[in-house]
Amino acid sequence: MPVFLTPIAGLVALGALLPIAAAVVRERRLRGVRGVLGLQAPTRASAFGGAAAAAAAIALLGLAAAQPAVARSDGVRVRTDAQAYVVVDNSRSMEAVQRRGGRSRFVRAKALALRLRDAVPQLPWGVASFNDRTLAHTFPTGDRGTFADTLAQSIGIERPPPVFRERTATALDTIGQTAIAGFFSPHARKRLVVLFTDGESRPFAPRSLAYMLGQGHVHLLIVRLWNAGDRVYDARGHDLGYRPAPGSTAELQRLERVGIRVLPEADFGAAPGIVRRFLGSGPTAEPQRRRRLTPLAPVAVLASIVPFGFVLVRSRR
Fold first, then answer.
1. What's the pTM value of the predicted model, to 2 decimals?
2. Alpha-carbon distance 123 to 79, whole Å?
3. 146, 138 Cβ separation under 8 angstroms
């Protein structure tokens, strides 16, 4: 749908009448002179070509001043009975990479989180960070822009830092806070948390975590980003001495025994299907539609160069 963002500024285009009016007045005066001297009248193209080109250039600039744009609105119907969070581990160990110059666990986790949201857009998604506590950064929304901006700008390594400085800051059982700390709306019957983590945590009780989540009707899916060969390097490529904790694998296996699914990063392709099966079917509503504008003013300005060039070339003859 075409719109004008500053329609009043488009009155500049009225200036296009000036060169046309000037050309008409000039031709009337010259008509009499030609009659006296017996000169042949020029063609209309010759007489009014320059004025028409000048008028076209001014009209295009007036159009650009009105800021024309094509407006498109988008919106996906979202579930009203379900909400989800992607929770990204922001502890120091998430800076580990598989090779020098590679993408860190943290960067990969954020990319996968956005992929998951885009694969299931009908589910309102929120964003949270996680180390020795879980903090919500944006509540579940159907707006992709809000989700993506929060993921890109509000989540960072140790931002915020853990409260307790220990060798392993992460405490997996604190993900249970999502069930009791007002993360979800009361009307959300289906509640999902997808945790992106390396799984390296202080000791915790899997059954207690499962019980807490169950009390809040929260379903947890863990996507693990971890490799025994991962290392952390500084800006100069020096190994900082981090070594993955081999015992973390056994800890996560204990979670699976109490019904919490742990998905390796290599198997992430299965995650959207798992989410959809959990989501099932339910009532939907259309959220506030977001208007996207494609500006056309630059096109009008560029187009004005052609008639302006014609006027300049003609004036030099």
1. 0.70
2. 6
3. yes
Quote the pLDDT of residue 75.
62
Give the pLDDT band (50/70/90) at residue 166. Answer: low
Query: What distance in Å separates the CA atoms of residue 54 and residue 19, rounded to the nearest whole number?
Result: 7
Q: How many CA atoms lie within 13 A of 161 on its CB side?
A: 4
Q: How many CB atoms are closer than 10 A to CB 34?
A: 13
- Whole-number Å distance between alpha carbons of 140 and 134: 15
3-state secondary structure (DSSP) of residue 179: helix
Nearest CA to 132 among 173, 193, 184, 178? 173
Q: Is 140 in a helix, a strand, or coil?
A: strand
126 within 8 A of 139, measured Cβ to Cβ: yes
CA separation, residue 53 to residues 48, 220, 300 (Å): 9, 67, 14
Q: How many residues does the chain have?
A: 317
3-state secondary structure of 40: coil
One-letter amino acid of 36: V
Question: Amino acid identity, residue 295?
Answer: P
Structural tokens at position 284: 């939907």
Site of tokens 């009499």: 32
Residue with tokens 């500049």: 12
Amino acid identity, position 238 = H
